[in-house]
Amino acid sequence: MIRFGFLILIIISLLTGSCSGRKPKLDKRNLIPEKELVSLLTDIHLTDGLLSISRINYWASSLDSITTYYQVIENHGYTKETMDKTMKYYFLNNPKKLNKIYDQVLGRLSEMESRVEKESIITLARNSNIWPGKGFYSFPSLSSNDSTVFDMTLYKPGVYTLSFSITLFPDDQSINPRATAFSCSSDSTETGKRLYVKSPDYIKDGRPHTYNLIIIVPGNRIRHLRGWLYDFDNLPYGHEKHVKIENISLTHTLVAV
């Protein structure tokens, strides 16, 4: 949330010489350039937000908030007097321009907020990803032994989601390309009943498509999960494969099943 800390600077500036009813004439010389003023006000807002965090506020408790703002100004290479003059000029002589400058500040802050949220989602996804295999496959492969086969044990009950992105190119010669996955009881992986996971056929258009496979593990049952991210009906040798698999993740949601 954005607080309006920098308005304190405007009020202080106006209190020094702007109490009369006449509109003062302020020249435009030695003002902070617009681009740098946007950056400065953005940093003041960020500082204001940081000071709302109790741990940081305690660390900076020896300084009052106004002093902290002035330190931000000095870090940008300007003085309190230059800031006062700049804010006075825009506030009293060109408030519409000040509104446009502040719109740029809000735009930068919104962009930062969106970037932080996106990075947080990515970090959370990485931390919750329990996929044990490689994160990327590509065919033709540099290694003739490369395979998209997976084999793992699912110990916790709940819903598992295997998500990945497939780019299947038009010159790929595989027939009925798809993912194949099945789960079975951990004590009968070779002879036990296989529960196949529904998977759509891949689209062969050279564009990335995201697929999700849902695996349900009932309570108090350990399941084995096996399969291939890239499966097909023709023999594995003797045909050209052209596919890219990326953004692979396996996540778990603990629900009663």
Q: How would you explain this protein's 3D organization?
A:
This protein has 257 residues and is an alpha+beta fold. The chain has two domains: 7-128, no CATH class; 137-253, Jelly Rolls (Sandwich). It is built from six helices and eight strands, in the order ααααααββββββββ. It has helices at residues 7-15, 34-51, 54-59, 65-75, 80-93, 95-128, and strands at 137-139, 149-154, 158-168, 178-185, 195-196, 208-217, 223-231, 243-253. A four-stranded antiparallel sheet has the order 1-8-3-6, with helices on one face. The relative contact order is 0.15. Mean pLDDT is 80; it is low at 17-21.
Summarize the structure.
This protein has 257 residues and is of the alpha+beta class. The chain has helices at 7-15, 34-51, 54-59, 65-75, 80-93, 95-128, and strands spanning 137-139, 149-154, 158-168, 178-185, 195-196, 208-217, 223-231, 243-253.
Helix percent reads 25-40%
Structural class: alpha+beta
Q: Report the sheet with the most strands, covering strand number, pairing sense and barrel closure.
A: 4 strands, antiparallel
The total of beta strands comes to: 8
Strand content: 15-25%
Cα Rg:
30 Å
From the N-terminal CA to the C-terminal CA, the straight-line distance is 39 Å
Biggest sheet strand order reads 1-8-3-6
What best-fitting shape do the alpha-carbon axes yield?
A: elongated
Order of helices and strands: HHHHHHEEEEEEEE
Number of domains: 2
Low-confidence parts: 17-21
Question: Would you tell me the overall average pLDDT?
Answer: 80
Number of helices: 6
